[in-house]
Structures are given as structure tokens and as C-alpha cells.
Amino acid sequence: MIFHNHEDTFGVEGESCHGLCCLRLEDVGVTVGEAQLLHDVSFHLHCGEITALIGPNGAGKSTLFKTILGQLPHSGTIQFHRADGKAQRPVIGYVPQSPAFDRGDPVSVLDFFAAAVERWPVFLPIPPKIRARAEQCLARTHAQGLLDKRLGTLSGGELQRFLMALALEPLPHILILDEPLSGVDVEGEKQLLDMLDELRRTYDLSILLSTHDFATLEGYADKVLLLKTTLLREGSPAEVLESREFRDVFRLDLGRGAR
Amino acid sequence: MELWYSLVDLLPFEWAQPGHMFFMKNALLAILVISPLFGLLSTMVVQSRMSFFSDALGHSAFTGVAVGSLCGLGEPLGAAVAFALGFSLLFTWVRRRTSLGSDTVIGVFSSTAVALGIFIATLDGGSFTRFNSLLIGDILSVDPAKIGLLAAILGAILLLWVLSYNDLLLSALHPALADSRGVKVFWQEALLNAAIAVVVTVAMTWVGLLVINALLVLPAAAARNLAKNTRQYHLFSVLGAVVCGVAGLMCSYYKGASAGAAITLFLAACFALSLLGAGKQK
């Protein structure tokens, strides 16, 4: 993977990738049966940027994520280009919306991590080398202390940190987080956002996350996408939050949506 | 087998005397192969919430035997395994294609298969009683060739576990996350369902259809109450299955009751004890 000075990535808009690595969506549409879930969605994601995806429930945010992950058939094109302009299949790290694991699941954080990352079958005693590597990876999101905890006993913030560490191994080009702030308290929220900021600087990642928490957008998002089956508005947090489209979409549930 | 017989001859039981009661010695060996097999599979059946599915498979496995004997096969086991494989793959596929709940799809499949089995078995005024032996099962009727077959299946499941356990676990815990990491979730499900189908069908003659599901659910259910990670989960489940398997066989020998039922009762007792253990932990 080619890293780029992330200073260059700010303020880049428009049609081309300007020599930076980026994910390009052109006229992406998804139709399942009769229902048109997405149509004419076009945007670029650049390395080192945090992009926030907002929109009402049912706007197609999760559908868009699944499409980028390659789990849904779609029209239009999705292409990833490296900084040198060559197209490549991107490695995508995916952090699902806070999943509920059974409290009783006899699966430790180490089990889940090793099962996802290593070939060694986790029902056999885990070699110290694998344990050490897991600890190292979890340290990226300050989750190394969770190794022997069971999945079902993690708090919302701990679970997010663990799932983020998992999504960062192998190191992805793009990190996708589905509602990372839901189920996390105010303190945990700030920690997570600081960590995302740190990650994109350290690893030059494109980060795409969905959120309903508009109040914090300004502090960390480089770009905001307003989605309702298609892209209604794209721009800086201030531009989108003050736009007519944003008011139209959230007029009815502004009280619930904004915190 | 000679090696096994001379080993058993060392045991201090009256049936272990050299030169006789070979059926009991065969049964003991069969139990030592079947119980770890069920202990292993059990962990995944419970983790993937497949206990109702394995129950349905058990109840419909005799349909395969009925189909086999309808086709005039002397040894209907092959036909039964083929039927169970088809049943499990079709089920996996339909469950993916429909928005109906998993339990509903299982209910549809189970009742259809059972009805088909009874229909074929009673065709032209046939009597169902010839299938009664499958319901209760008879571990003492196992012969060395069949023990070899069971051992081969145990080997295959072990191989599946070594190659695929991580992917199976991810698919069971979080299909979308597994998919994003390149796991073929559908095929993992299909593979697991097929494995359960084969094991249930092959083992039903000796364990008995009515209680076979207990062996697929109880060992892991008890182990879950105590285990903190995947290794403990497997250890407790397999160990519990083997201990209860041997205890059940002994009990059935001395008391003359069905071995499958005795094993199930021992497993149920283990489950009750594990509940107490779990209560103390919290």
C-alpha cells in the first residue's frame, strides 16, 4: 500500500482523485425486487479523510455500506484507485452496528479475533505467538485488556473498540463504521472520535461512518454526505447542516435526530 | 479389533472376560467413537442455534430409510444419507431465499419429511412397526465394520473442524462481519448442516431417533454454562459426552434399558449440575 501525506488530502473536491488514493462511486444504484433502495449515487472517498453519512432511517445507509462491501448487486461502478492511479481491489475494514452477542456465548475476545485473523483453529490451545499478535492489534484501539473477556460481557464502548481493532487487521484502505456512536456513552463517544482521528492520521485511511449525532459532526468530519435513496447534498459539515435539503429531510424529526 | 478386545479384557467387569460378550465390547468402542463425535458437533449446533434443525433432521431421517427400502435396497443406509444430505442442503437454500423465520422453515421441512416417510412406510397397507427399532435404537447391534464407518466420520468431522472451525464460528456469531472478511457464509452453513445430517442418519440405528437430538444439544448446553472460552467449551462438551456415554452404556447393561435413553438421562443430569455451577459463578 502506498501512503500519502495526508495534508494534501484536505479540500480535494470534484471529479478526479487528484493523484490521491480514493474510492469512486459513479451512478451507483441498488434495486431489490420492486424496491429501488439507491439510485444515482456518486461520490469520492479520499485517504486520510473522515466522511460522515447521514440520512433518516430507511434512507439506504446500510444498503450503501453493503454495496461497497460487495454484498449486494448494483448498477453503476465502484472503483478503488491507488495514489499512482492504478485500480485495485481495496481491503475494507467493516465495523457492524453494535451487534448483540449472547451473554452466555463461550467466546472470548481472543477467540473471535484469532478466528477472524488467523488460520489456527481456535478450539485448540492458542499458541503464545498468536496471543501476542492479537494483543498488539488490539492495542491500536486501546483494547488489549479485553483479550480474555467474553464477547457478551463487553460494554458498548469496549465492543466498538474491539470491533475496530478487528477491522484494522489486516490494515484496510477503507474503514466503514455503521452507527459507531449508538450504544456508547458521552465519554466513550469522545474517546472513539479521538481514536478515529488518530487512526486516519497514523494509517492514512479513508473512514466512512454513518451517524445520527449531528452535533459532533463539525468537530471531526471532513465531509458529510446527506443520503435519502440518492445523494441530496455533499460538502463540509457546516454546508450540509445549514442546507435547505437537510432541513427538508429532518424537518419532522429534528428534535429526535439532533442531540 | 483384536487389540481392542485384549484391551477390554483387562477391565474388571464380568462382561469383559476374554472370549465372550463381543457385542458389549463392540458397543463400548462404538460409544467411545460416537460420543466425542456428538460432543464436537454439539458445540456448533448450540452456537448456531440449530437444535431445532437437528431435531427435525432426526425425525425425518427414517424417511430416507423408508425411501431406500421402497427402492428395494437391502441396505438403506446409503439412501438415507443421500436423502438427509438433500434435505439439509435444500433447507439451507430455502432458508436463505425466504424471509420466513428459521423455525417456520424447519417446521415446514420437518413435517413434510415425516409425512412423506409415514406415507411411504404405510403404502399398500404396510406396517410401521418395522421402523420401531429405529425410534429406540440398539447400540448392542453395532458390528466392527460399522464402528469403522463411525470412526471414519469422526475423522472427517475432526478434519472439518481443523480446516473450517474459525469460519464456522464467525458465520454463526456475525454473518455480515464474516462475509466482509471473505468467509463464504452460505457454504459454511451448508457444510455444517450436511455434517449434522450425515451424523444423525448414520448414528440413528444405534442411538435411536427419539433421543438422538439430546446428544446434539445437551453436551454443549451444559458446557456453555461453565465455559469461558472456545477451548473450555469444547473440552467440557466432549468430556461430558464421553463420560455420560460410557456411564449410560453401563447403566443400560446392568438395568436392561435402552442405552440411548440412559445416556440422555446422564447428560440431562450433567446439564442440571452445570446450571448449579453457573449459578455459583455469578
Topology:
The complex is a heterodimer of chains A (259) and B (282).
Chain A: E1 22-32, E2 35-46, E3 50-54, H1 61-68, E4 75-81, E5 92-95, H2 109-117, H3 128-139, H4 156-167, E6 174-177, H5 186-203, E7 206-210, H6 217-220, E8 223-228, E9 230-235, H7 237-241, H8 244-250, H9 254-257
Parallel strand pairs in A: 3-7, 3-8, 5-6, 6-7
Antiparallel strand pairs in A: 1-2, 1-4, 8-9
Chain B: H1 2-8, H2 22-47, H3 51-70, H4 77-97, H5 102-121, H6 132-136, H7 144-173, H8 175-180, H9 185-207, H10 209-226, H11 230-255, H12 259-281
Helix pairs in contact in B: 2-7, 2-9, 2-10, 2-11, 3-4, 3-5, 3-9, 3-10, 4-5, 4-9, 7-9, 9-10, 10-11, 10-12, 11-12
| Strand order within the widest beta sheet of chain A | 5-6-7-3-8-9
The portion of residues assigned to helices of chain B is over 70%
Task: Tell me the strand percentage band of chain A.
Answer: 15-25%
Indicate the CATH architecture of the largest domain in chain A: 3-Layer(aba) Sandwich
CATH class term of the largest domain in chain A: Alpha Beta
Largest sheet of chain A: 6 strands, mixed
The run of helices and strands of chain A is EEEHEEHHHEHEHEEHHH
Overall 3D form of chain B: globular
- The count of domains of chain A is 2
Q: Percent range for helical residues of chain A?
A: 25-40%
Distance between the termini of chain A: 39 Å
CATH topology grouping of the largest domain in chain A: Rossmann fold
Helix count, DSSP H or I runs of 4 or more residues of chain B: 12
Strand/helix succession of chain B: HHHHHHHHHHHH
So, the CATH homologous superfamily of the largest domain in chain A?
Answer: P-loop containing nucleotide triphosphate hydrolases
